[in-house]
């Protein structure tokens, strides 16, 4: 169990997650009060190796947490981090999730697709990758 300021969170972390591939013990309440899964937390922690490790272990690449798929969280993280840091937007998380089978057409609860989110943020590389992965599926 992990003690937080407000309550206890019971965790069972498979032995295969221990000793490599990132810190898997982040399944706990965040400052915003949300509880994130290890895969979603790996993105928030900029832990690409940890995310890939989890995907290789069988985590669903379309997993939803806090109303966001992993792909939506990746695009949001990549764009937000670049905007705040004044850097070029990376696309490593987006590429990894698509490689492991994330559905680029799954929508956010607000109705936007990952491509629409990438376009909103001006995340051109993610948009290019997403359009390449969805071409033909919309009849285009």
Please sum up the structure shown.
By secondary structure, the chain is mostly helical.
Polypeptide structure, described:
With 140 residues, the chain is mainly alpha-helical. It has a single domain (37-134), classed as Ankyrin repeat-containing domain (Serine Threonine Protein Phosphatase 5, Tetratricopeptide repeat, Alpha Horseshoe). It is built from 6 helices and 4 strands, in the order ββααββαααα. It has helices at 38-44, 48-56, 70-85, 92-99, 114-121, 124-134; strands at residues 2-3, 8-9, 64-65, 68-69. It is globular.
Blueprint of the fold:
Elements (H helix, E strand, L loop, with lengths): L1 E2 L4 E2 L28 H7 L3 H9 L7 E2 L2 E2 H16 L6 H8 L14 H8 L2 H11 L6
Antiparallel strand pairs: 1-2, 3-4
